Amino acid sequence: MVVPVFVLGLVLPLIQRAHTSAGVGFQFASYIDNYMVLQKEPAGAVIWGYGISGATVTVTLCQDQEIIMKKVTHVKAYSNSWMVVLDPMKPGGPYEVMAQQTFGRMNLTLRVHDVLFGDVWLCSGQSNMQMTVLQIFNATSELSNTTAYQSVRILSVSLIQAEQELEDLAGVDLKWSKPTSENLGHGKFEYMSAVCWLFGRYLYDTLRYPIGLISSSWGGTPIEAWSSGRSLKACGVHRQGFIPSDSVTGPSEYSVLWNAMIHPLSNMTLKGVIWYQGESNVNFNRDLYNCTFPALIEDWRQTFHRGSQGQTERLFPFGFVQLSSVLAGAVSDDQLPQIRWHQTADFGYVPNLRMPNTFMAVAMDLGDRNSPFGSIHPRDKQTVAYRLHLGARAVAYGEKQLIFQGPLPEKIELLADKGLLNLMYSQQIQVQRQDDKIFEVRGRAETIGVPPVLGVSVSSTAKPISLIVT
């Protein structure tokens, strides 16, 4: 597998123990800040932080000096933490969130402003998720296209490892922000994720209400680093002393990124998750990916549902990108196809029985031989994000009559005496003959997920395909 020689992430020191709130003053959780997006109705958004054990905390939601609601709680003795669940809110804003701690005669007040309610999506994975807008096709145009999307807010988690599950984030690279050319194109493989941003932007074009995007990704990392010990144990994955260096260039110790970059977010109320990872498992535990990936999804769902006091849906929508092709010839012919197959829990499609409420964006046709970051990192992230947003519209938002998957074969018939293979597909398709050796199968534009900005259109017919067997 081709591994780029550039640095995929800033390696920060491994945190030796879980975050402790002992002695922490009155404060919000690290990611509760100005410009944030909180999850809208029907769920209630979670607000939490730290304070003095036993103190009373009153959380107030205001708009234009008018009090919308108040919630009262107490700081827990053991963790020195406090938490409230807001009543479900319609999308919109801006609002101010105020928290006041009362302990005896002492009163302290915290405020965050320009808070919106909308849908909050977490974006995670390795370097293809970590790539910034600066690195993709049409970067100059994309970076200048932010004015109309000031209600799409972005946050990027710092690259940190931990040996134990952290309660709160140890660092944030980009605090909740409105999108600008500077924070979307900050650097190469530094905040903000292009796939995450484009996915949210496409969703906003459809939904027309605020979208919150949280990027938590690290290049060159295997799925084991993003998995809890519980989910790895469920797949029979045990700690090994050696991990191949050709496919794993980032943190590889089991659970260290789950501990530091995912678990601290679990109190947050989410709409869903998108995921772009798998390259680092081509040569490491590849045959277990059909278990470790579904197990990761299940464990994340359980953890976020529990951490948000039941506000994040138990089976929240989970979208992922099926890996692109490597065109440099460094990977054997069957390794990437095996990972792609295992990404679907060996069904070949999603949703399926082992992966309910999931959606997939195919990227096998997006191989980028001339990518300066290696062909494993295609620069056409617009098509990836557009396909993801189609899946989200169909699965997460229940949009009917929306074609978001490629044609699936419903019937295969071998006519050996005639040298023919008849394929009946679930959707209308068209076969275009290129020459005597090459043919191309096309579906509707919505099926293959071509962003309108790229100006590609295709037609369709309802005829079955007959292929000559040689």
Keywords:
hydrolase; Sialate O-acetylesterase; alpha/beta; 19 strands; 10 helices; 3 domains; serine esterase; disordered N terminus; Rossmann fold; 19% helix; sialate O-acetylesterase activity; 26% strand; 470 residues
Compact description:
The protein has ten helices and 19 strands. It is α/β, with parallel strands linked by helices and 470 residues long.
Explained architecture:
The chain is of the alpha/beta class and 470 residues long. It has 3 domains: 27-116, Immunoglobulin-like, CATH 2.60.40.10; 118-397, Rossmann fold, CATH 3.40.50; 411-469, no CATH class. 19% of the residues lie in helices and 26% in strands. It has helices spanning 127-130, 139-144, 181-184, 194-207, 229-234, 256-262, 289-307, 335-343, 381-395, 445-448; strands spanning 27-28, 37-39, 46-50, 56-63, 66-74, 81-85, 92-103, 106-125, 152-157, 172-177, 211-217, 272-276, 318-321, 358-361, 409-415, 420-425, 430-433, 439-442, 465-468. Strands 2, 4, 5, 7, 8, 9, 10, 11, 12, 13 and 14 form an 11-stranded mixed sheet that branches. The chain has a 3-stranded antiparallel sheet with strand order 1-3-6, with no helix packed on it. It has a 3-stranded antiparallel sheet with strand order 15-16-19, with no helix packed on it. A hairpin with a 4-residue loop joins β15 and β16 (420-425). α4 packs across α9 and α7 (289-307) packs parallel to α8 (335-343). The longest helix is centred in the middle third of the chain and has 19 residues, at 289-307. The radius of gyration is 23 Å and the shape is globular. The protein starts with 26 loop residues before the first strand and ends with a strand.
